[in-house]
Amino acid sequence: MNDNNNLTPEIHSATASVSNAPLTTAVTEQLSPALLRSEIDRRIVKIRPASTPIDQISRMCGARHAGSMKVDFYSVNMKPGEVTLGKDIPQQDITAGTTIETRVDKSGVLSASETVMFPTVNVGEAGNEKPLICYVKKVEGMMTELIPVGTATIPAIAKGTRIVRMGRAADELDVQTPQYTALPTKRFNYCQIFKAQVEESMYQRLSDKEVGWTFSDQEEVAVLDMRLGMEKSFLFGERSRLDTGDGSEVYLTGGIWNQAGKTHDIDLQAFKENDMLDLMRKAFTGGTGSRRKILVGGTDLIDAIGKLDYKRVVSAREKETVWGVDFDKIVSKFGSLYVIHSEIFDLCGMPGNGMVIDPDYMTKYSHVPFRAERISFAKQGVRNTEAVVLTESSCLVLRYPETHMRVIANK
Hints:
Elements: E1 10-12, E2 17-19, H1 25-31, H2 33-44, H3 53-60, E3 63-65, E4 70-75, E5 82-84, E6 92-93, E7 100-103, E8 114-123, E9 130-140, E10 143-149, E11 153-154, E12 162-168, E13 185-190, E14 192-201, H4 202-208, H5 217-236, E15 240-243, E16 249-252, E17 262-266, H6 273-284, E18 292-297, H7 299-306, E19 315-322, E20 325-331, E21 336-341, H8 343-347, E22 354-357, E23 362-376, E24 385-398, E25 405-409
Parallel strand pairs: 3-23, 17-25, 18-21
Antiparallel strand pairs: 1-2, 4-13, 5-12, 6-11, 7-10, 8-9, 8-12, 9-10, 14-24, 15-16, 18-22, 19-20, 20-21, 22-25, 23-24
């Protein structure tokens, strides 16, 4: 009769199989590491998900593997849809072939053969006025040459007037058009090593009657405390690489608060429905984001939102559970905002602030996915205890920064 205790497992990596021995967690970790990690993640996301919404969403959406502690990523925004006039244009009569040489405040936005609109400049006869349309004949840096269309006279146009990009208008014989380029910007972030340790005596472990790594009460509290710390770092961390002075380095991850491309200021003392509509308008416009975004806010901000008397333009609907979290859903013509309270903002001195996040353009990178390692200090002759060490090395990054927005309450 064979002695199973003396069997040596034959591991076949090519077929992800094992023979001549029972399947163990050690073998499973070697053949299919994601299998156990997925089970761990499923347990983690069940631990008070509303307390750490950012970490929760990042886990539910899945993480990308990072080959090192430094994560390089590219972010890109759409070409701006408007510029402003860089200098005054005097009133003048327009004849065939008349061009206007002027200046804009930003280079690289307008290009030759485009048409543009001055939405606040009306031309034409009284009672039949319409916005001024121009054809872009030439662009050199910020200097622009325009041809007014459909008018005999243009009024004086002040510096700072908005110019909106419209469609291109090619000549009949044109084969090519000025190139459209939207080059991504290379950015980087550091994965931070997050750790937590639960330790108990051997007598406590024996009385627990549990085998292997499970979520005992102590472990659950440790994981929650670890996630709360990660949530603060994911939001407000300062990216840095520190030399501790003893020959080792510590990586600190950068928070997504400083990665957002937009900021919206609000006055909580006079916050009304129209102010909420303004917030949503800015959150859902000016980028290529989705029509479903998340607002995570401190106590004062959520309190002000909760006191609003919603009418026809903005409506507050019942709660909706998404990514394992219960959100209050606010709907407007611009999009749907999923609102949740976070005490992290209170603890970090920002009870009136919040952040609008587009989950479709938030990515988590994991250099070391969440794992638990059991250590027996009794076997090492240190002390009569066993410990569980929880570890994850990860970071969050925002792609398309203009789809995310900081909300800051005026003091």
